[in-house]
């Protein structure tokens, strides 16, 4: 038998040397793991989500008095429908000729639209500023119709109870 070979003692020493650090490593790893948060923080709504819905109000056409009824339906997909409500009380009563369809963009609290009525091939544009909560807006509308520049100012409030679905 060779001297210096103490197999049982070396094996026992190696077990203790390797097992203790491994146990500590497993304990640290288990303690540092945690479940995913079951209640994630809600995300802030996008400007399009805050803008979505019916907005009603008035506009003027060449005068100082905001005396014409007006509405816009903003959808979250970037489309808008504009209503000239001078001949109707809600969107079910309105003639299709009194509606315009188009698109909108939001940059900060400024909303711009581009839309066309079925009876005029002209493109109408609007630019309006909203409050920070997207509850009211005030702006200007312009178009070039049959050789005439048209401009108007308007004011709209959000949350009207009109009948068309916003989606």
Please characterize this protein's 3D structure.
The chain has 167 residues and is of the alpha+beta class. The protein has a domain at 47-158: Beta Barrel (Lipocalin). Helix content is 19%, strand content 40%. Strands 1-2-3-4-5-6-7-8 form an 8-stranded antiparallel β-barrel. Strand 4 (99-107) and strand 5 form a beta hairpin. The chain is elongated and about 100 Å long. The N and C termini lie far apart (90 Å).
What layout of secondary structure does this protein have?
Elements: H1 7-32, H2 47-51, E1 53-59, E2 68-74, E3 79-84, E4 99-107, E5 110-117, E6 123-130, E7 136-145, E8 148-158
Antiparallel strand pairs: 1-2, 1-8, 2-3, 3-4, 4-5, 5-6, 6-7, 7-8
User: What is the CA–CA distance across the termini?
Assistant: 90 Å
Strand order of the largest sheet: 1-2-3-4-5-6-7-8
- Principal-axis shape equals elongated
Give helix % range: 10-25%
Strand content: 35-45%
Name some characteristics of this structure.
167 residues; alpha+beta; Lipocalin; 8 strands; 19% helix; elongated
């Amino acid at each position: 038998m060779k001297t210096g070979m103490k197999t049982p003692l070396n094996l026992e020493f190696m077990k203790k040397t390797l097992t203790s650090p491994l146990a500590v490593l497993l304990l640290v790893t288990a303690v540092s793991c945690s479940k995913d948060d079951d209640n994630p923080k809600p995300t802030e709504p996008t400007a399009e989500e805050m803008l979505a819905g019916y907005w009603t109000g008035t506009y003027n056409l060449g005068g100082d008095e905001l005396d014409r009824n007006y509405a816009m339906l903003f959808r979250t997909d970037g489309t808008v429908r504009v209503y000239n409500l001078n001949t109707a009380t809600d969107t079910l009563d309105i003639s299709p000729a009194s509606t315009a369809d188009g698109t909108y963009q939001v940059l900060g609290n400024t909303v711009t639209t581009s839309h066309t009525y079925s009876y005029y091939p002209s493109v109408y544009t609007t630019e309006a500023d909203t409050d920070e909560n997207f509850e009211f807006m005030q702006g200007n509308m312009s178009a070039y119709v049959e050789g005439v520049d048209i401009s108007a100012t308007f004011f709209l409030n959000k949350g009207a109870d009109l009948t068309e679905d916003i989606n």
